[in-house]
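Bug report (template v2)

What were you trying to do?
Predict the complex of my protein with magnesium ion.

What happened?
Run completed; filing so the output is reviewed.

Input:
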Amino acid sequence: MAVGFETDIQYLKGIGEKRAQLFRKLGITTAGELIAHYPREYIDLTQPTPAAAAPVGQQAAIRATVTGKSGEQRIRKGLSVFKVQAVDEEGIRLSITFFNAKFTVDKLQAGQEYLFYGQVGGTLLKKELSAPLVFTLQEAQELIPVYPLTAGLTSRMVAGAVRQALGALLEQVQEPLPSAIRVQHNLCHLQYAVENIHFPAQRQNMLLARRRLIFQELFTLTLALSAVRSTKGMEAAVRLAPADLSDFIASLPFPLTGAQLRAVGEITADLAGPAPMNRLLQGDVGSGKTVVAACACVFAAKNAAQAALMAPTEILAAQHHQTMQKLLGPFGIRTALLTGSTKAAEKRRIKEQLAAGEIDLVVGTHALLSSGTEFARLALVITDEQHRFGVGQRIALGQKGGAPHTLVMSATPIPRTLALMIYGDLDLSVIDTMPVGRLPVKTYAIDSAKRQRAFGFIQKHLDAGYQAYIVCPLVEPGEQDTAGLISAADYARQLQEKEFSAYRVGLLHGRMKAAEKEETMLRFKNGEIDLLVATTVIEVGVDVPGAVIMLIENAERFGLSQLHQLRGRVGRGNVQSYCILLSDSKGLDARARLNTMCRTTSGFAVAEEDLRLRGPGDFFGQRQHGLPQFALADLSTDVALLESARTAAEELLTADPGLALPEHRLLREQVEQMLRAIGSRPN
Ligand code: ADP
Ligand code: MG
């Protein structure tokens, strides 16, 4: 019988009914599914370690000649032990123990050389291996695939079955990707990929195969999501005409960076289009997202349409309002601030003006705008620091006034935003360069023995006319002090009385009234406060370019991305800035986090490290519902490939929107399969 993709695996040579049963437990019933069962890792036997150098306690591949075997020793019922002696090229003796492995041991021949792969034990002169995998020299010339298994199956059995299936099927594997895309993105042929994901001769071949297969998964997903999106076919609530922003851009106190201009271009192109924009603006802390948002607001205003800008905290809302007023005011754009602490009468007046179209831009916190605010002509909703909001909130907002254009701004590169990109189906603009002249923040980790020296360093900068932050962990006044922490209020008082008696010390924490917070921030911004002692209320978005030092107390209590956000409050001008992480913690995790912070200032690197330290399970676990299980792709690490796949998908859909061309038939089938997997189908 000719073997095809649909052939039941029990008809493959060497797989009987019984073994087929085991494969079914892995979700494999057909030959096609079998070859899509990819190894989870590979053992590299191409560079064996000399026994003398094999590190005790680690896995190693050792090449050695068998010199003798002891007979089977029955320890108890169901447990037999076999001892095998071997010696390597340098004459180092190897003692190998096998358990219940009569078949393997019987096959070993004295005088023959093999590769043994397993956990190394013993001493320098006599090494031990316990229950290693055994390979002939012939086998050892390739990488050995290690498959996900179920009890009763060994990796070797799976490999054998896959080899059978591949022998019959490989020639029948057809290439779904258009060759132009393969050439442009350097992707190998699918046949090569399928063969080399299982049996690569070298690591390099496996990586090529992997890259190709991951691309295909992400490409198909993107095509499927576009299919869903295009069926929605929504019109923007307010149609905007192209507008010239050059006068506004010329009025800014600095030239926009290339990356900012590119983002503005992408956004305005969306705004002038018929469909509502749904775009994520991503840029590291301090990269200058606010001014890009301002451009979008000007675009709306030039169309006599309204915009709303949402911030996660009142402090940030107030700051944004101030910035927008300064930048947009000269262009006759009317702005208002609407937060939880806006007085009732004022609130009513602003709402009336919004409904009458007498305000062009309202800046506020989230809660407020979702509660009964009417707009005359709302065209654009911008959400800052999106990672702070839930997806539900964003959807609720998107429903305001029909379908406004939405722009989401975030400093978090992965993984949350990536999830959103897929959930929320966002387009992406990236600000990937910092404004000219920025110096990376120098970061140091110290312990409390050096606190006074750090204070001296801060004083020196205050004397030079700069400002500083001291950040304390979450203890607010009146809160229980459980870990020897001191509240920000007490700490500020102490500092004002002692080390910083010659300076103006300010205090900012979450329990203060909004008006008080705003006033303190304003005074800090205006240089009336030298040293601001704060809790993490300043974590997000606060922009005071004159502040050049941040000292973080009990730095071990903060997560990596939080530390990165905090540090982002300094280094916002062209002066060398510093971040001092104070901690007496000896914990390994804490040390790893602080070291990461000292090593890198890139938000991307910090996020990757965060992911590594916390493990991927924390990020893309089961919460990722709605998305299919990927065989190979990992949305948190394959970011670059996802981007290429998205670009390729967009280009392809422009050329052939319905994938109707005959050469796209295979691809269309894959997309349909993906649509079934994500539980949606185009209507
Ligand atoms: P974030 O992306 O973190 O929101 P901001 O928009 O607050 O960053 O910008 C950080 C600082 O950089 C602000 O003080 C802003 O005025 C300044 N800035 C923004 N763009 C530029 C630029 N092109 N050149 C110089 N400074 C800029
Ligand atoms: Mg910001």
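What did the reviewer find?
The chain has 23 helices and 21 strands. The longest helix spans residues 203-232.
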